[in-house]
Amino acid sequence: MVEIPEENYSPLWPGDARTPVPRTASERVILTGFLDYFRATFEQKCAGLADHQLSEASVPPSTMTLHGLVRHLGGVERWWFQIQFVGADVPMLYYSDDDPGQDFDSLDGDVDEAFAVWRHECERSRQIVAAAGSLDDTGTTLRDGEPFSLRWLLVDLIGEYARHCGHVDLLRERLDGGTGA
User: pTM of the prediction?
Assistant: First the structure.
């Protein structure tokens, strides 16, 4: 995680553990700051629920759950940063050609395990970004062989997390009335 001088930010409210994104900084600091902010927002929105609530599909007819989203986002982190950006030969998480919906449909394993895997994947992604020489460094998509820049990847993941934070809002409100954060 990028260290931001305290004079460049202030918490949004007492008890908010998220680090706000600095308004003036380098492009890399701002992009990684937004991605980490949305990662922290996602985790904060899931906090305080029992495991059975995290695994409950609370917005029918959707089968989406918070547990499934944790698994999905862990897989997304691995897929984009390790497999596609650096070309690591690691297995995909919660996915196979025979069962592509495992992240949402097969909630085996416990929620703590899913969060531990997701946190590990986020940390590995941070290491990959920190090791990159430039936001112009590229990876290659496996689907079409086209290159993409680290800059594009960071913006894409910010969008992914922002969309899913909206999903979490709906799921959480149905589970216990929680909103905000």
Answer: 0.88
CA quadruple 130, 133, 135, 138: dihedral positive or negative? negative
The enclosing H or E element of 31 equals: helix 27-46
What's 25-176's CATH class? mainly alpha
Task: Write the single-letter amino acid at 5.
Answer: P
- The residue type of 22 is P
Nearest to 71 by CA among 141, 121, 35: 121
The secondary structure of 135-151, three-state, reads CCCEEECCCCCCEEEHH
pLDDT in tens, 32-50: 999 999 999 999 999 999 9
Give me the residue spans of the domains in the chain: 25-176
